Amino acid sequence: MAYFEHEGCTLHYEEYGHGTPLLLVHGLGSSTLDWEKQIPELSTRYRVIIPDVRGHGRSDKPRERYSIASFSADLVALIEYLNLGPTHLVGLSMGGMIGFQLAVDQPSLLKSLCIVNSAPEVKVRTADDYWQWFKRWSLMRILSLRTIGTALGGKLFPKPEQADLRHKMAERWAKNDKRAYLASFNAIVGWGVQERLAKVTCPTLIISADRDYTPVALKEAYVKLLPDARLVVIEDSRHATPLDQPHRFNQTLLEFLTAVDTTTQDH
């Protein structure tokens, strides 16, 4: 268990393995535990670094407004604190947004970027968008985090054999700090860097579950805006692909990272 300070906030991270650094960034309401099915395999070949985003897990939960830009600044501080140099970054959902923000702000810090079930913007444009956002926000204020976790678990892991994952989801969600959770949700809504995607110069892999919340078509559209990106769709998966299809996910990611590392060595 390791900690570092950034702007008066104590942030928690974990480290496994040796080699080229690989940062794994979790989603909203989650923690380093998002990556339990990746650590054993990835850490045999990489120095895997897994932070708890501000307001999550074992990191501080300051009473303030959160933003994707400040989450990204925390990661930049971690990269500098550990003196990593250019690193591979994998971000799931909100972690992908943080990855996009870092990639457009500080492209030289990234060796590669992998975005999992995420998007470069969350804009509220139509009356329906506003209604969906308001509905989610209201439910999150009213319901207990355990109730939300149970509902999410049922959505993300609906199969009979996924009972264990459903149970974990409910347990983990219940441990969130409600105020920090809402502040993080507010940081997502209205955020976007889509108009700056041309700045993402590193090789980029977009992974989409075939049954993610947002359609594969959305990912196909923004992949075209990135200078060096490709999309891989993982079958029979929902929003938490690293947990529901760990083997396919790890294989896809390792193939991509190996290709990037080989190309960099050749230059």
From TrEMBL:
Keywords: Hydrolase. It comes from Pseudomonas frederiksbergensis. Residues 21-134 form the AB hydrolase-1 domain. Pfam families: Abhydrolase_1 (PF00561). It comes from the Bacteria. This is 3-oxoadipate enol-lactonase. SUPFAM superfamilies: alpha/beta-Hydrolases. PANTHER family: AB HYDROLASE SUPERFAMILY PROTEIN YCLE, MONOACYLGLYCEROL LIPASE. GO terms for molecular function: hydrolase activity. GO terms for cellular component: membrane.
